[in-house]
Task: structure prediction
Amino acid sequence: MTTITNTKPAGPVTPAGRRDPRAVWRRRLRSLRGTAGRLVIVVALGAVLEWAVASGRISQVQLPRPTDMLRALVEGLLDGHYLRLLGVTLAETGVAFTAAAVVGTTLGYLLWRRPILGRAYEPALYALASAPIVLLYPVLLVVFGRNPVAVTVLGFLAGLLPVLITTFQAFQRLNPTYLKVARVMRLTDRQAFLRVLLPAAMPSVVVGLRLGLTFTLLNVLGMEYLAGIGGVGSEISLAYTRLRSDEMYGALVLSIALSVAFLLLLNRLTERVMRR
Amino acid sequence: MSTMTDHRTHTTGALVVDNVSKSFRGDGGLGEPVPALGNVSLQVDHGEFVSLIGPSGCGKSTLINIAAGLVGDYDGAVRIHGDRVTTPHPGIGMVFQEESTFPWLTTQQNVEFGLRMSGVSAKERRDQARDMIELVGLGNAAERYPAKLSGGMRQRVALARALVMEPEILLMDEPFAALDEQTRMVLGEELLRIQSKLQQTVVFVTHNLGEAVQLSDRVVAMTARPATIKAIVEVDLPRPRDSSIVSSPRYGELVAELWSLLRDEAIAALGERERG
Ligand SMILES: Nc1ncnc2c1ncn2[C@@H]1O[C@H](COP(=O)(O)OP(=O)(O)OP(=O)(O)O)[C@@H](O)[C@H]1O
Ligand SMILES: [Mg+2]
Result:
């Protein structure tokens, strides 16, 4: 019942493709096959490592057997220990990132609205953005004490700058014709912001949010590790000092899973915004 | 003879341009003022289609932007219903040369946009937008996003978005300049059909002399910068017109007449640009 003649091949985002149920199934099948393929690669790699460690080609201290690693991971998950760690890291990252997103987009917008501020602070912002924020951790420990609040503040600071800068740039690069359309249609300031400026800037802002989340997560895990406080990061350093490489790798897998989960979440978000 | 210097004496035009001048200051407001418009007076009657032609950079966009209320700071007066225009008048609609459709909205949503912002109910605006989309010949692309439309189709969306607000005066700044010749002819024909149906007053900027003759009741030829009115040519071709008039001898004569008016100005403008 295709009513629209589509000159492009029916990809997953064409309106025709979205409506045709067979195309949807074909797409699911294709992505399932992709996932299965990736899984096969991971399992095969695991098997090779297992063999290398078991046969003594790699020392157990450098790398535990993948099966031991998995066992540590599963045990940690089952006795609730890892879940608690995950909970702490997630909470720190979640609060830090949300704050960075809200404050960063607001400040980025204000810098654009007030060009005098924007011009005054822009160079300083770029300089700050390339500074290694994680080195602030001793300061934060002194100010906030050895607790997750210090970690959260660091994560917030790390995520703030990329969000702020990309938001500022997104507004700077807005198509000026959109602003003219908004004015000729006599939109109120509020309407112009919510209905024109924001959606127009959104694709670039989302890029900033992705960057911000990556920075926040990196710095949260990094500070947990360095200061031995909080969740997954501190567990890695603990296992490391105890020479428990199975636990260390278990926690590493956990942190990787965490970032992959965040990434997938962001991809979803990006897809929704970019659906055009 | 159809050429005459315009000093009409009506006082009831839809749009009255009374002795308008405008200078821009270069270099962030510090340089020498550059005059863009010099004492332009013009009167556009209700339901009239007037084109502005003139060498590149002479000030046509400046004039139309002043009429749109996008440039508040100018000398003289542009009047709509007797009021001096300094901000966008509710009775105007505008179509731009550059891309102006919102990429985050479908055709339907783009056309509904202005109605939605002025609080028209969902059902009403859906129906009105539907009718307008049919009228501009996009009936089967209503649910598509601009990225999936050709340049000509996007310009139709922009036209429909302006027309659906039923503006008394439609200001168009080179709306078809980015389109190929055939699309331009077809869209011109459609614009005429819609304009005669809706009884709109149109001010239309173009570089295309043929297009000016095809569409207009009068063509205003402007001088090189600062733009003043050099002559106004009445187009005495019968209406309703379609694109077949391009083969009539009178059409050819009128285009030749416009060219003879513009030739010296175009050369002057070119010379000025080469001097810097
Ligand atoms: N905002 C501005 N600031 C400074 N100078 C400007 C500004 N807008 C226009 N000008 C200058 O005013 C003159 C007229 O510009 P305008 O855009 O009105 O010309 P135009 O006739 O529309 O040209 P074109 O046919 O190329 O579109 C140009 O010399 C341009 O450089
Ligand atoms: Mg122009």
